Amino acid sequence: MRLVFDRGTLLFDDLTDLPAGVDICQIAGVLWDERVGGYRAPARLCYAIVSELRRRGVRIGEQPCPSLTPPSGFRPLQLRPYQEAALAAWRQSARRGLVVLPTGSGKTRIALGAIASTRTPCLCLVPTRALVDQWTSALAAVWDGPIGQFGDGVRVLGPVTMATFASAYRHMARIGDKFGLLIVDEAHHFGQGGRDETLEMSIAPLRLGLTATPPAPGPAARRLASLIGPLVFERTIADLAGRYLAPLERITWRLTLDPDERREHDALWETYRQARRAFEGNHLGGSWEDFLHQAARTDDGRRGIAAWRRARRILAFPRRKREALALLLRHHRTQRTLVFVADNETAYRVAREHLVMPLTCDIGRAERQAVLDRFRAGTLRALVSAQVLNEGLDVPDAEVGIVVAGRMGSREHVQRVGRLLRPGEGKRALVYELVVEQSSEVRQAERRWESLAVRERSAA
Amino acid sequence: MLSESDLPLRLIEERAFIDFLGPQDEPWLRVLLAEMARFEGRRRRELAERLSEPLPCEAPYFKRRAAARTLLRLWRPESGSTGPPGSATVRREPPSLALRPAELRARLFTAAAASEAPGASVVDQTAAGLGIAPALLLESLFADLPGERPVRAPDPRPTPAEAALRINLAIAQAVLMRASRIELRVEGGVRPVVRLAKLRGLLCTITDGDPAEPSRPLLEISGPFSLFRHTLLYGRALAELLPHLAWCARFELRAACALRGRLATVSVESGDPIFPAAPPTLFDSRLEERFAHDIARLAPDWDVIREPEPVRAGTTLIFPDFLLRHRIHPERQVLIEIIGFWTAQYLANKLEKLRQAELPVCILCVDEDRACAPDDLPPGMPVVPFRRRLDAAAVLRQVERLTGAADSKAA
Q1: pTM exceeds cut of 0.90
Q2: Selected residue of A10, A35, A353 to mutate for chain B interface (largest B Cβ count, 10 A)
Q3: Domains in chain B: how many in total?
Q4: Which residues span the domain enclosing B94?
Q5: pLDDT tens sequence across B166-215
Q6: Is B142 near chain A, with CB under 8 Å?
Q7: Which residue in A235, A187, A206 sits closest to A123, CA to CA?
Q8: Which among A200, A324, A449, B395 would be 20 to 30 A from B148, CA to CA?
Q9: Which of A239, A195, A231, A229 is nearest to A213 (CA)?
C-alpha cells in the first residue's frame, strides 16, 4: 500500500495486498472520496494512520516524509531555567503541545531550543511579516544554515523556513509534506475554525505552540489541543516578575468629558441603547454579532450602530485625554514610552499633536525597522500605535505604557502590557490607563485587569 | 472581497437569494458615482469616510454598502504621488532637492525627541531647516501612506450600468467565497472553466450524468479538503471561476455557502447580471494555433473543430484539443490530442481515460523533447511525435490511414 500526499491530504493507493479483515474506512479520520475513487485523510493524521496500519499488519511501501535536509550545527543555546523546563515538558509530551508564557519572557528561545534538539526540517508560522524578520534574525544568531521564507513575495524553502499565517494558509497544500516540526507562534490565532486548515494540511508529527494568551477552556481550546497538542507548560507574569520580568505598576487615570463632548456622547449612547433594547426584546441573550446583523436591517438599528461608532470615536481621544497624554509624555520624556490608541487615525493625530512617531500597519517594513532601531538607540523616546505593537514584535526595553484606548479587549491588553515587561536593572514597568468616567470604558478597563488577574490566579 | 455584512442577501429557510443591482438602481448609483468624482484628487481616507455616510438620495442600505466598497477599489491612489493633495511633491529651495515623507518623519520626530522646546517650535525649526512652510511639513508628514494618498478615478469612468455589473460580480464572488464546493451544469465553453479550476488545484468531477443532456454535464468542483468539512480554503479559487462562466452558452451554478451562521444554497445562472471576465483565448499555445492553421490549409475537405464537446470518461471529462471531421462523410472523424510534457504514468492515465470514453479514433501528438523516455509511448496507439512544430501533413496521413482503415473494416 502507498500513502501519497495530495494537496494537504493523504491519498491511499495500491490497496490490493491488504490483510484480510482490514477496513481502511475504520481508521479514524479516513473517508472514502467518491471524486477520485479512493480513501483520503487530512495530512496531519499521517503518522497516526501509518502507526495504526502497521499495528494491523498492513505493509506500507511508501509514505510521505519530510523531504528537506534536516538542520544541524546549532551553536549552544543558553536557556533560563523556566525555558529549559518548558522544553522538557514539551519533549515529555511526545514533542506536541502548547507553551504559555508572558510576552517578553523569551518564547522564541524555547522554539530555537526545540528546533536545535529535534533536528528535523521545521516550519515556523508567525502572524506578521515583521515577525518573520524578527524570527529570522533570532535564528541566524544561533545557526548559520540557509533559512527559508514563505511570504512577502518570497518562496524559498530551507531546513528551517519562516512563513506568515496568511502565506502558509495559501501554500500549505504544496509544502505540507516538507517538514517534520511545526512551530506556531501566537498559537491562540488557531482553534477557532478560521484558518485551522493550515495546521491540518501538514504531515508534521511534532508541533510546538507558543502564546501568552491561550483560549479559555471550551471548544477553541479543545480544537487547538487537537491541532497542536495539550497545554504542557504555563507560567504567568506573577511567576516571572522580579527576576525575569520587570515588576508592573498600574495607574488608572479617570477623566471627564467636556460638557459639549458629554452631551454629544450621551445623546449618541442613548440612540445606541434604544436600538440595543429593541434587539434584546426579541433576541434574549443574542451576541454582539447577532445584534449587528439584526440592527443593519432597520433604519433605527443602523442609526444605533452609527451612534455607537461615533460615541466610541469621542471616547477614543477626547480633549481631556489629549491633555493628559501631553502631560504624561512631558513627565516621562526621558523614558522610553509606548502609547496605545484605538485606531490608526488617532495614532496619526497623536503623532501630529505630540510629535510622537507612529508605528502603524501603513508604515513600510524598512521604515518600521529603522524606527525600532532608533527607539532602541534612544534617538526616539516614544512610539504611538494602534495594533502593530500589540503582538509579538520585539520592542526594546520600553518602561512606560500609556493606554489611551483599545478595541480588542483583554487579550489585546495582556499583549500590550507584555511590551513593557522586558527586565532591566532596577526597572519598574508603569502602565497608565486613560479612562473616561461615566462611559463604557470604565467597565472595559475593569474587565481587562480582571481577566489578567484571573489568569494570574488560575495559573497560581 | 466584500465582507459578509455588506451583502444584499435574502435568506429564506435553506436558500439564499442575491439581490442583484439592476436598472432600478442606476439613479442612486449615478449619484454615488458623481459623489465619488467630487473626491478625485483628495485623500483616499476622506473618500472612504464620505462613502460610509448615506447618499443625498434614497438608496438600499446593503446594496449601497456593497457598491461603495466595490467602487472604492476602482479609485486608485495617484501613481508616484507622495505629497499632500494639491502639491504632488515636497520640495525645498532649490526645487531639485525633494524629500520623501518617510524622511520628513525621521527628521521631525528625531528632532522632537532631542529637543526640550515646545512642539510648535520644533516643527518651525525643522521646517525652516528643510526650507518649507511648517504647515506643509505637517500636511506632508503622512502623505505617502495608503489612506492619505490622493485618489484617481478609473479611466474610463464606469457608467452606472457597468458599475452595477461590477458590483454584482463582487457580491456573487463574496458569496461564493463562503462555499466549499460548487455544482455546475454548463453548456459550451466548459474547457476554460475546467482548465482554470485545475490550475487552481481544484478537483472537477461529474457527479451525475444525464443521458438526455450529454452536452450539459453536471460538474462538481471542490478541493481535496472539502471532503472533511465545509472549508473556506477554496472559496477564492471557486469565486474566481464565476466571471469566466459568462462565456459559456448556458450555465447553472449552485453552492452551499456559510452565511450568517448557517449553510444556505445559492444559485447563479446565465442571464444574471454579472461582469464577465476577458474572453477566453481560442488556443492554449502558439503551437496549437500554427497546427490549426496548417491542417486547415492542407485538408480542405475536413472541418477542423477546435475544442469539440467534452467527452465523459468515468467520473471525469476529456477535452480533446481538435476534432477533424470529413465534410462529405461526417462519420469519418478523428480526435487529436496534443501532449507537451508527459511521463509514462501521465500517458497511462490518459490512455485509460480514452479507453473509458470509448472514443472511436484518437491520435496522440507527443513532444519528443519533453518526454521522459521513448519506451514509455503506448504500443498500438497512433502517435505523431513532434519537435517544436507539429507536422500537419504527418497528422493528416495518420488521419487518412485511420479513417480509411475504419472504412474498410466497416465494409
Answers
A1: no
A2: A35
A3: 3
A4: 90-148
A5: 999 999 999 999 999 999 998 887 888 888 898 888 998 876 556 666 66
A6: yes
A7: A206
A8: A324
A9: A231
